[in-house]
Amino acid sequence: MIKIDRLTTGYGRMEALHAVSLSIAPGQTVAVLGANGAGKTTLCRVASGLVPAWSGSIEVDGVDITKASSVERVRRGIIQVPEGRQVFPEMTIEENLRLGAYIHDRVRAEDLDLVYSLFPILKTRLSQNAGLLSGGEQQMLALARALMSRPKYLLLDEPSQGIAPKVIEQMGEAIRSIAATGVAILLVEQNLFLAEAICQHAFIMENGLITADGPTDRILKSNLVQDSYLGA
Ligand SMILES: Nc1ncnc2c1ncn2[C@@H]1O[C@H](COP(=O)(O)OP(=O)(O)O)[C@@H](O)[C@H]1O
Ligand SMILES: [Mg+2]
Questions:
Q1: If you measure from the C-alpha of residue 206 to the centroid of ligand 1, how many angstroms do you get, rounded to a whole number?
Q2: What are phi and psi of 102, to 5 degrees?
Q3: Can you give the CATH number for the domain in which 210 is found?
Q4: For the chain, which ranges sit under pLDDT 70?
Q5: Which ligand does the CA of 45 lie closest to?
Q6: Can you tell me the distance from the alpha carbon of 160 to that of 72, in angstroms, rounded to the nearest whole number?
Q7: Which atom number of ligand 1 is nearest to the Cα of residue 38?
Q8: Model's pTM, two decimal places?
């Protein structure tokens, strides 16, 4: 269980998140939907320790990690797939995957097998530079690399950004299989398609505030999302 409680943070003197609370249970896939600038990336960063919390708390499996380093959080299973993929373009696909296992003493064959079964395309192109992959394939690689560190909590920052609908569908299926193994997933998105396909519960974020939440289908049927996007 990851539990974020009245978390506030920002940049310089600007507060970007205002007392945000949400929790994710093991195996649950939760969406945070919001317009550009709402604070979605900041939420991922504060959870993974890249941005310090100003107040409030983050708890993982009953342990307070509000002040823990990023490395400590990775050890506890919190893994972020950052916005804009950020694979290493000059390294091969295999090297990118092996880097994902850096917190473990060695690369485990069963982890590679899992990744190859989820994304067969990667296996066929192991010795190619990651920079040669399409945008969608790079996003798959970024997700695959995150899996190599055996996440318990996966934070996905706009994985569908700039990706064709057919590839988003594939990605959705892969994320669903990952969740089925018990991994908890926080999906932050501007695009509603992926959230609709894979998330049971959705939060709406507006200007650093959670303004609504509920079952994803209900949230998407209401005008709340549209209103929040127009308001931004
Ligand atoms: N590194 C930064 N320095 C200063 N302000 C930032 C920085 N990153 C984000 N912000 C600001 O924080 C707010 C939330 O941004 P962000 O979390 O990136 O939103 P989203 O991911 O929802 O688009 C915005 O007003 C943005 O301009
Ligand atoms: Mg963002």
A1: 12
A2: -60, -25
A3: 3.40.50.300
A4: 230-232
A5: 1
A6: 28
A7: 22
A8: 0.94
